[in-house]
Amino acid sequence: MKAQHSALCVEEAEEAVKELRAALVQAGIKLPTLRLDPASLAREAPCPLVELGRCSVEVVRHLTAVLR
Question: What is this structure's pTM?
Answer without folding.
Answer: 0.83
